[in-house]
Every structure is written in structure tokens, then in C-alpha cells.
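Thought: the user wants the 3D structure for the chain below. I'll pass the sequence to the structure tool as-is, report back what it returns, then summarize two notable features.
Action: structure_tool
Action Input:
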Amino acid sequence: MTGLLASFGKPFKYQVAAFRLRLAQLQGTVKWDDVWQAQHDRAFMVAGAMKADLLADLGAAVDKAISQGTSLETFRKDFRALVEKNGWHGWTGEGTKGGEAWRTRVIYQTNLSTSYAAGRFAQLTEAGFPFWVYFHGNSMEPRHQHLAWDGLVLPPDHPFWATHYPPNGWGCSCYASGARTLAGAQRLGGNPDLKLPEGWQSLVPKTGAPVGIDKGWAYAPGASVEETVRSMAAKTVYWPYEIAKAYMADLPAEVRDDFAAAYRNLPSTEAAVQQFANRVIEQGPSLPAPDLPRVKEYQTLGLLTKADTADITTILGQDVAGYDFAVSRSSILHVFKKHGIEISERKRGQRAVVPADYGLLLQLLSAPDSRIEERGDIIMTKKIGNDLITAVFSRLPKRRMLSLVTMWVGV
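Observation:
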């Protein structure tokens, strides 16, 4: 599955666009085939999930996997938390460790593989390759029919691709590539001499699909929305902070708040903020060695909801529509220097701020006890356990963010 994941700092923009197009329609379903074939291009569904807030949470977790490269195990942690949060019961696989592992793998891999395929379809079409090549994905248990198609070279308008464009079933890892010439296709590993057998389009009564294709998979993911995906991908920026911030930018207003809240409440978001703080503190203010990557400058904490926007705009007297909350490398270093020393903080009736506290910011932002303006900044507080978290955010209009200035923890 590694080929389907976003590489650090460079997600596959066509795949991100293809998946986010689906998030505009959260489709409640009872069975997996309630949404059929190409209908998946414009809808997000998980079999048995009916409620919009549950689907928003699931969509946010899958989007992180696609746009930020989170692993299957990270997705599983998010899945457990959101299932408990939403009180979702009766889902297939519930009740056993093996069942949960199977169900989460199906949700994760199916969404990654089909969104990757849809993005790849748009990319190949945009590039104008006169030849497409079918490749077997080297799975541990290959399907003999898929192996028989390995290396097949056909023009993109051949009817084969309408029903056989990969993936062609549950767990299928086959993929397509493009070539400018037949010689180029051969260099990729294609075989221009390979021919389709007689009756390759014949349908199997049990599946309603051609031989070798699972029920419900006889379509080309992304073909029905290819131009839209290309248009959306053109707007995608290629570095992690902007990808994360742009997460909900193209979604309809009526679902954007659900996804903003879902993103902020995912355990993986909390873990990512803590890891960011850890890396900043470990690296310190100096530049790393030339062969080591520098920690990124910002980490998003998610977009403001409509309620956040209205409240903070009133408090500050400045429009913050379209802003997100963020922490910066410089703010973490400032907090570490000013409020990260236990001895000096105890004298103030506080305790030292540690990286785990940056995860608590997500709880503060979701439901602060207070918000006030001071010198053009907004100060928020929240009691969490025995700690009183105070965070100061400054409005950065050019970046359209409310960026952390400082924070401290009273005890």
C-alpha cells in the first residue's frame, strides 16, 4: 500500500482532490452496495454508517491518511476513538480484535486505492498519453486473471478501461501507467504483443461483472469526474501545512463545520501536534545539519467553525473568516524558553509547559471557558483536570491564521 500513501511533504494532489470531491456528499448506507460503482466518485460512504457526524469523523480520518500519509495503525486508533464518541454499534467486525482489524483495513485500503486510481485517471488523461499500460500490483496472493492482464497496452479510449481500469476488486493493488510510444510502454514493462482473449467482456452471472472483477468493481474510478478532479488538483499546494489547512476549503458550507470539528477531535491530530512540538524542541533554534530536514514552520489545529468565526470577529473587531488556528515553530521555542522551566514556573503558581500540552490546545479551542481580547490578540482559557490552560493567539491576516503567541499552565 505504500505507493498509495502520500509521501512526506508531497501528497499526490490528484488523489487528494478526488477524495475531497466525495466529502461534499456524506451518504448514509446500510449495505456496501447501496452506493454503486461510479456513484462513489461523488459520495463518501462506509457501510452501516448512517449519521452525518459519524461519516464526517470517518471522512476526516481517511483524509488524513491520504493527504498526510498516516498509517493504517494510526487510522485504527482514530477509528476506535470516533466509534466510541459516536456510540456506533452493530458495524460488521465489531466485537473481536480480528473483526476490527479486517474492517478498518477494508475502509482504509479501499478508500486509498480508489481515490488513488481516480487521481491517476485524471493525471493520465491530462498528460494525454496515447497508450495506457495495465500492471499487476505484486500482491502476496495474486489473482491469476489480473496477472494475465499484466503488461497489457491499450489506447485510453479502448472499452477495456471502462470496466477493467484498476483496482478490480477488494484488496486489488493493480494500477495503470501511461506511455508516449509503444517503445516507451515496453521500457515501462508493458507488452504490446499481449492481446485480450475472446469473450473478455462476457459477464459472470454471480457478480454481474467480467471474469476476474469483483461485484461492484466493473468501472473506472474517477472517470465520471475527471475534469473536476483536474480542476481541483490545480489549486492544491504541495507542502504539508497548506495541504492540511486546505482540507475543508472546497467543501460546501453546510458540511464544513462537521469536518473542522472532526479534524480537531481526531487522536491522530493531537498526536501530530505533540510530535511537532517535540521535534521543534529537540531541534532547537539553530539550523540543522545540511543533510537533515528542518522542522516545518507551522502546524494547523484546524479551521475555525462558523461559531468560532462569528465570536472571534466580534471580540477582535476584525474579520477572521477562512482562518485556522495554528502553532508555529517560533511560538513553541518561545513557550519553552518562557514557560518551560519547572523551577521558575512554580514561583508563578504554574507548572512547566511540556509537548503533551499542545495536544490540550485542541480541547481548549473546541470548547474554551473564556475568550477575551487584549492588545489586539485573543486570550482563551480552559480548565482541564487540575490544570488551567491559557493560550494567546495573534491574528495574521496575510496567512489567514490565528497563530499561537504563548501559553502557560496554572495549577
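Final Answer: Structure generated. The CA atoms of residues 209 and 294 lie 50 Å apart. Residues 97-127 form the longest helix (31 residues).
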